[in-house]
Structure formats: C-alpha cells, structure tokens
Amino acid sequence: MTAAQIVAEIFYSLIGIVFALVGVKALRDPGAQKKGTTAAFWFVLAFTFILGNYLPKWITGLCVIVIAVLTAINGVKQSANDVPDPKAVRASANKLGYKVFIPALCLAVVAVVAATLGGSVPALSWLTANNAIGVSGICALIVALLLFKAPAKYVVADGTRLMDNVGPVGILPQLLSALGALFTAAGVGTVIANGVSAIIPEGSKLIACAVYCIAMALFTVIMGNGFAAFSVITVGIGIPFLIMQGANPVVVGALGLTAGYCGTLLTPMAANFNIMPAALLEVKNKYAIIKSQVPVAIIMLVIHIALMYFFAF
Fold first, then answer.
1. What does the H/E/C string look like for the chain?
2. Is residue 64 within 8 Å of 27, Cβ to Cβ?
3. Residue 101 scores a pLDDT above 90
4. Is residue 284 exposed (0-12), middle (13-18) or buried (19+ Cβ within 10 Å)?
5. First to last CA, the chain
6. Which pLDDT value is given to residue 44?
C-alpha cells in the first residue's frame, strides 16, 4: 500500500468514526424514534468506511443494500440534539463577527496549496486531491479551535449533530458518483455518442459545445451529481466531439464539470444542496430553493457554452 493510500485510509476511518458516533448518539437518546434501525444505519455505514477496503466486494455491496433498505422503510430518524440557546448564539455571533469565516477560508486555501504541492513536490506525492481535502479539514479545525477558544468536546458534539441533521442524504453524492462510474463501465457513454452523432453536424464546434454543456446539465439533473454525470457525458460527447476535434482538454474538463453544476441547481436529486436547505429553513414549499435558482442556472449554462466555444478551441 502506497503512502497516499495509507493516508486516505486514515481519513476514511476518521469519517467512519463520525458515523459510528452518530449511531451511538441515537442509542443514547431515550426518546429517539426507531433508535435501533437508526443506529444500525450509521454503524453499517461506519463499517464500510473503516473496513471497506479490506472486505470482499460482495460484503460491501450487501452493506449498501442494508442501508438502502433502512432508508427506504423510513427507519433512520434524527435523535435529540443539545442545541445552544438562541440568545447565546446571537451574542456569540455578534462577538465573533466575520472571523467565523476564517476557518472556511483556511479550508479552501490549504486544500489548493496542498494539492498543488502534492502534484509538484515528489516528497509530498501522498497529497492527492482527496488527501489534500482531508489535510485542509484538519487545519481548518485546528484554526477554529484556536480562534474561538472552543472546548475540544464540541468537535464531537457538533460534528455528530450536523451529520445527524443532514441524515442519509449526506452520502448521496458518493453513491451517485459510484453510479456514474458504473454507467461508464456499462458503456452508456458509447450509446450516448451514437445518438449524439446524428445531432451534431460535422465540424460544428458551437453546436458540439452546446450539446456537451446541456447534456452535462441534464444528466446531472437525472443523477443529482455533476461528478456522476461527468464521466458518462465526457466519454460519450466531450472526448469524441470536442477533444478529438482539437479542443483543449483542460478547458473542456473544467467547464464541462461546472456546466454540470448548473444542473445541480435544478434538481431535487441533489438533496443535500436543494431539499435539505429547504427543510432546515422550514420553507413550506420544499422546491422553493430550486425555483429561486432556475434563472441563475440557465444564465450560467449559456455563459458556459460561450466560454467553452471561445476558450477551448
């Protein structure tokens, strides 16, 4: 096992521990609904994250089926949370002001720097893109603890509370990304390429850009995740109709993925982006977030088509 894989396993194990703690939180709540199935969901999920790399694939697949069934039967419920007093929260917010954004900024900056160093410094080759995100998360956590003088116990208390609030939809992006890889392996991209070849006139770069970006957005609407759509649509449209025609792969890849994000704004399948915020904000219409994002998504999609046409060729 390489250094990068060892570091990745450490981060996956840390994530698994958080899931396990959410399960413990459910069991310790005397008034929790369906605490048995709720705890089982989080424990099985933690099991796959911590030991999944060492298990036969059929066992991991069985675990995925178990958590899917527990979710389908509405067996995962949120347990009680020790929510701070609103007045105390307001007073703390007034005191901290914009300093509360420093850890978030640290998260982004460290991730970019770490990923850049990992790609250019041989000694830091273990800093892959995923590992860089993990490192940035730890750095942001340390900055938050030092900046806000918060007790270390809040890391566990608020971390599990946030995960419990998000619930099963928190793992939806990962599942959809895996589904995208499955679609690619099944040859869905080839089928799409055969169908699109009848639409795009030979040598029409603008139409190729438009079809690629729109397909990325539409498939993201279906899949709920831009990463899931990216592999399928890029194999089926991006490579044969853009890159093979002389388009810059870097531009096609970058703008293609963000074109997919335009679809993320439009779909209830992206539950953690659209449906969950509506629930947390207690909005009466659960699609209110999506409706407000439609004009922005359409405008951004048109801009993506133009940018790809002018900068990819």
1. CCHHHHHHHHHHHHHHHHHHHHHHHHHCCCCCCCHHHHHHHHHHHHHHHHHHHHCCHHHHHHHHHHHHHHHHCCCCCCCCCCCCCHHHHHHHHHHHHHHHHHHHHHHHHHHHHHHHHHHHCHHHCCCCHHHHHHHHHHHHHHHHHHHHCCCCHHHHHHHHHHHHHHHHHHHHHHHHHHHHHHHHHCCHHHHHHHHHCCCCCCCCHHHHHHHHHHHHHHHHHHHCCHHHHHHHHHHHHHHHHCHHHCCCHHHHHHHHHHHHHHHHCCCCCCCCCCHHHHHHCCCCCCCHHHHHHHHHHHHHHHHHHHHHHHHCC
2. no
3. no
4. exposed
5. 41
6. 92
Average confidence score pLDDT of the chain? 83
Express each pLDDT in 199-231 by its tens digit.
777 778 888 899 899 999 988 888 777 777 887
Tokens of 247: 């388009």
Question: Model confidence over 282-295: pLDDT tens digits?
Answer: 777 878 888 888 99
Q: Which two tokens stand for residue 59?
A: 């066992």
Task: Scan for tokens 């990325």, then name that residue.
Answer: 216
Check whether 280 has a pLDDT greater than 70: no
Q: Which amino acid makes up residue 223? A: M
Cβ neighbours of residue 284 under 8 Å, at least 6 residues apart? none
- Torsion, Cα 79 80 86 91, to 10 degrees, reads -80
pTM over 0.85: no
Tell me how far apart the alpha carbons of residues 47 and 176 are, in angstroms, rounded to a whole number. Answer: 20
Question: Given this model, what pLDDT does residue 180 score?
Answer: 67
- Give yes or no for a contact between 22 and 163, defined as CB atoms under 8 angstroms apart: yes
Q: Is 286 exposed, middle or buried (0-12, 13-18, 19+ CB in 10 A)?
A: middle
* Rg, C-alpha atoms of the chain: 22
